[in-house]
Amino acid sequence: MEYITLAHGSGGRLSRHLIESLIAKHLGNPYLDQMNDAAILPSQHKIALTTDSFVISPLFFRGGDIGKLAVCGTVNDLTVSGAIPEYLTLALILEEGLAIADLERIIVSIAATARQARVRIVCGDTKVVERGNADKIYINTAGIGFLRTDVPVSPAQVKPGDVILINGTIGDHGIAVLADREGLEFETPVCSDCAPLNILVDQFFGPGVKCMRDPTRGGVGTILNEIARQADVGMILYEESLPVHPAVVGACDMLGLELLHLANEGKVLVIASPESADEILARMRGHELGRQAAKIGVVRAEDAGRVVMQTALSAKRIVGMLEGEHLPRIC
After folding, report:
1. How far apart are CA 322 and CA 326, in angstroms?
2. Read out DSSP for 120-178?
3. Which residues of the chain have pLDDT under 70?
4. What CATH number does the domain located at 155-319 have?
5. Nearest-CA neighbor of 275 among 208, 188, 175?
6. What residue spans define the domains of the chain?
7. H helices of the chain, where?
8. For position 167, what pLDDT does the model report?
9. Which of 58, 168, 240, 276 has the fewest CB within 10 Å, making it most exposed?
10. Do the Cβ atoms of 58 and 180 come closer than 8 Å?
11. pLDDT computed for residue 152 by the predictor
């Protein structure tokens, strides 16, 4: 391709290709090459560093807004890297004409979410561009945290026999944003799952946790494919075990969407040793962010680098990475 397309921002195959073939090609170094949600930097205190940008449309949606999303997204990237989040930066790109009342609403949401996540906004920047040169507001963040343990939480730890867990229903964020953007109404409204995951992970983190990822852009299917390839293992998911809101199922059926490619903003995929999986699951279910936690699959030696779904009819199908663009401007 000669030009950037929306699909390059999907978090799927084209996003990965852009990063590997262009960005890492010219900027690669031992820290960037980790290709995890946060870079682990050498220091006495094992620092984790991440950065993110948020361009969601609409700015306010059921269950959240761009401010809450910015804090949660940054906190969650640190959390799934095995770190305790501590400090965030906040940079605002504002479009001329943005209502001051909307900006204050977003800042209030940022403050409230930062308190919930127990992090501090320690520095930032503000720029304003001419009317028509942005879409009201874009937010960029960076986050710093400190590793919980000397043992890395990464795909390198994943082995056949490990268990795949998730802390609740899949695809809520993607459908909530789509519904608000397109004016869709469901019999039971779907709210975004946007939430800071560190307050949940505090409850179950321990030696049995091998790997964690938050399945945002690209969804559960894309993230598990990435882990399977990095770890050189296969994975099998069980369709009947997937926790899903009935309205999300209905939306997928109606719109032809793949559930496992929908974005999530308050979900953590945990790959745990078989000995610790039940205890971790119980601890998840004891927290408000994990009431519907479930075992959704296992890691295996067969089909290395591939994710397979066992359907409710006992058939099997391959779950690939997201191709193209499911829904732009989702985070």
Report:
1. 8
2. EEEEEEEEEE-TTSSSSEEEEEEEEEEES-SS--SGGG--TT-EEEESS-SSHHHHHHH
3. none
4. 3.90.650.10
5. 208
6. 1-33, 36-147, 155-319
7. 13-18, 24-27, 66-80, 100-117, 172-182, 198-204, 219-231, 246-255, 277-285
8. 98
9. 240
10. yes
11. 82
- Residue among 258, 257, 268 nearest 209 (CA): 268
Tokens representing residue 17 in the block: 């290709």
In this structure, which topology does domain 36-147 adopt according to CATH? 60s Ribosomal Protein L30; Chain: A; (3.30.1330)
Whether residue 194 contacts residue 265, with contact meaning beta carbons closer than 8 Å, is answered with yes
Ramachandran quadrant class, 4 (left: phi over 0; alpha: psi -120 to 50; beta: rest): beta
Q: What percent of the chain has pLDDT over 70?
A: 100
Phi, psi angles (nearest 5°) of residue 143 = -135, 145
Collapsing DSSP to helix, strand or coil, 271 comes out as strand
pLDDT on residue 156: 93
Neighbours of 330 (CB within 10 A): 23
Residue 60: half-sphere exposure toward Cβ, Cα within 13 Å: 9
Domains 36-147 and 155-319 share a fold: no
Give pTM, 2 decimals. 0.94
Task: State the pLDDT at residue 8.
Answer: 85
Q: Give the Cα separation of 177 and 217 in Å (integer).
A: 13
| Terminal Cα distance for the chain, rounded | 24
